[in-house]
Amino acid sequence: MQPLADLVRPTSLDTYIGQSHLVGPGAPLRAVVESGALHSMIFWGPPGCGKTTLAKIIASSTHAEFHYLSAVSAKKEDIRQIIESDLGVRPLGLTDDPRGRTPKQKILFLDEIHRFNKAQQDYLLPYVENGVLTLIGATTENPSFEVIGPLQSRCQVYVLQPLSSADLAQVVDQVIKKSNGSNHRTISLKSDAQEFIITYSNGANCLI
Predict the structure, then answer these.
(1) DSSP β-bridge partners for residue 101
(2) How much is the pLDDT for 3?
(3) Are strands 89-91 and 101-103 parallel, antiparallel or unpaired?
(4) What totals of helices (H) and strands (E) does the chain contain, helices first?
(5) Closest CA to 158 of 35, 18, 15, 12
(6) 164 vs 35, 100, 139, 198, CA distance in Å?
(7) What does the pLDDT look like over 125-150, one tens digit per residue?
(8) I need a surface site. Which of 16, 74, 79, 145 has the fewest CB within 10 A?
(9) How far apart are CA 175 and CA 184, in angstroms?
(10) DSSP structural state of residue 67
C-alpha cells in the first residue's frame, strides 16, 4: 500500500503549499522551473517544511532524472553509480549521438548534506563543477558551517521557512480532499481536531 505522504504529495508548484517567497509568481525557484535553467542549490530549513517535495517538483517539471541519497548512509560508491546510470533519454534533434538523443540531466537530492564529511564533499565537488550532476542539498543546519566552501560557492542557498498555521490548514484540507477522492467513505475533521493537529505539528508538515 502506498504511504499517505506519497499519495498526497504535491506534484507541481501550483499545488505546493508554503514558501511563496521562493515559488510564488516571479519568485526565484518558479523562474528556475519555468525556464528549465537548472543550477545546483541548497535548501536550508527546518524539518517538514517541504524540501524533498520541492526538489521532486523541480526534477519532474524540468524532466530531469531524480536521484535521492541520504548523507547519513550514502557512500562515494552511491554517487559513482548515479553518475554512470542512464535512466532515460530525451530528444534533442541533431546531436553527436547517432540516435539524436542525449542522457537526461541528473539531479542528486542529497538529504542532510551536513552529514557528508569533507572527504565525501570533496569527491562530489568535481561532478557538480562540470555539470555532470545538479546538486540539490537539504539541510537543517547553516550550510556556511557544514558545507565546504568550494561546494557551497557552486550552489545557490535558498532558505525555507516553517509552515504557517494557514499553510498547515491547507495541507490538512488537501489530505482530506484526496482521501475522499480515493475512498468510498467520506472523511471529515472537526475544527478542534484540526486545530490540535496544526498546533502539534509546530510549523512542520508531518506528511511531506
Answers:
(1) 91
(2) 66
(3) antiparallel
(4) 10, 7
(5) 18
(6) 29, 47, 20, 9
(7) 999 999 999 999 999 999 999 999 99
(8) 145
(9) 15
(10) E
**Does residue 159 contact residue 149 with C-beta atoms inside 8 Å?**
no
* Residue 65: per-residue pLDDT: 94
Helices (H), the chain: 4-8, 20-23, 28-35, 51-61, 76-84, 118-129, 143-146, 149-152, 165-182, 191-201
Looking at the DSSP bridge assignments, the partners of residue 157 are: 42
Pick the closest to residue 27 from 161, 130, 150 (CA basis): 161
Domain borders along the chain are: 19-159, 165-201
Burial class (CB in 10 A: 0-12, 13-18, 19+), 73: exposed
The average pLDDT across 35-61 equals 95
Q: What's the whole-model pTM score?
A: 0.84
Mean pLDDT of 37-55: 95
Decide if pLDDT at 95 tops 80: no
CATH number for 19-159: choose from 3.60.110.10, 3.40.50.300, 3.40.720.10, 1.10.1020.10: 3.40.50.300
Q: Residue 55 in contact with residue 109, Cβ under 8 Å?
A: yes
Write down the mean pLDDT value for the chain. 85
